[in-house]
Amino acid sequence: xxxxxxxxxxxxxxxxxxxxxxxxxxxxxxxxxxxxxxxxxxxxxxxxxxxxxxxxxxxxxxxxxxxxxxxxxxxxxxxxxxxxxxxxxxxxxxxxxxxxxxxxxxxxxxxxxxxxxxxxxxxxxxxxxxxxxxxxxxxxxxxxxxxxxxxxxxxxxxxxxxxxxxxxxxxxxxxxxxxxxxx
Length: 183
Description:
Layout: H1 2-20, E1 27-30, H2 43-48, H3 60-70, E2 74-77, H4 96-110, E3 114-117, H5 125-134, E4 140-142, H6 153-168, E5 172-173, E6 176-177
Parallel strand pairs: 1-2, 2-3, 3-4
Antiparallel strand pairs: 5-6
Helix pairs in contact: 1-3, 3-4
């Protein structure tokens, strides 16, 4: 019932947004609830209203993606820079990569554009590579959490190289070419 309530709310908000802003580009953000994604219970998603336990019964992200298609809005997803098991100290069986892949598949199935963004501040090549691995699936990417540290010295050079890679697919990071693992 919780997910059904979320869908009704989403439908109402999107219908009103479409009435108020006809012909405008709109996007809706899908929460990056990756904690306990690797646990059979998917407890964090259930708490957020996403019933993502049994692929045979329901895929909440696919349902949301088709809702986005009906209202001609893009989906925005977060945590693109994160890796599965990245925060072991939290012992949260987090699986952001698996969540991102599920959302990518849902957007493909629904034929909806996908935007992305980072969840955490970062300035390391490993996190940049995580984003670059999925860039072909995205129509836009928003880099969140710019900081003074990011905009100076070597970290700024890496950031510039990342931006060049996002645009052209090429560009060094820290004086060396970034290694992108296809997957």
